[in-house]
Write a structure and sequence with these properties.
The protein has helices at 11-19, 41-51, 66-70, 77-86, 120-129, 187-196, and strands at residues 24-26, 33-35, 60-62, 91-96, 111-115, 133-137, 158-159, 171-174, 179-182. By secondary structure, the chain is an alpha/beta fold.
Amino acid sequence: MLKVDTIGKDIKKAADIIRRGGIVIYPTETVYGIGANIFSEDALKKIFAIKKRTEDKPISVAVSDFRMMEKLVYTGDRERRFIGRFLPGPVTVLLKKKEIVPDVLTPGTDLIGIRYPEHKIAIKLIELAGVPITSTSANISGEAPPKRVAEIKIDADYILDGGDCTGEPSTVVDLVNWRILRTGAKYDEVLAALREI
């Protein structure tokens, strides 16, 4: 397992690995995540294996801007108002997916979780990879997500060391059924917005 000693020094290398179907662990404003090209079926299978995650559990996607998000999901005025208030940031939004999104990411549902992280390394990684990447915590399923590199117990092709993350997971919001599925960062603000918008 490799480590980047200088923050951001090898983001380009990490992006190249993702483009080639590899697996990269990267920092976000919440916890460390596992990144892979969402259009590489082999890479997605590796993630399920690495995390020891059953394939009936969905995996969210991280994007680097709103344009990339719009290619993956359907949004209306109400959803866009919510998204504009909280993204980029530590909130995952569930929206109806477009056909381009691989079914392996969304077993049994037509919704996909979208993360637009507020973290320079994560954003640069996605931009340089040129594709949306997976956004799932870098841990074995059921174990605590890592907030620093020293806590990572799973293997990957590359690790981007961005220092300590907050350790607080994102709040997950279903914007189709307008409800919170997981409490996390900015929970109170999200709850208030769901009542207001």
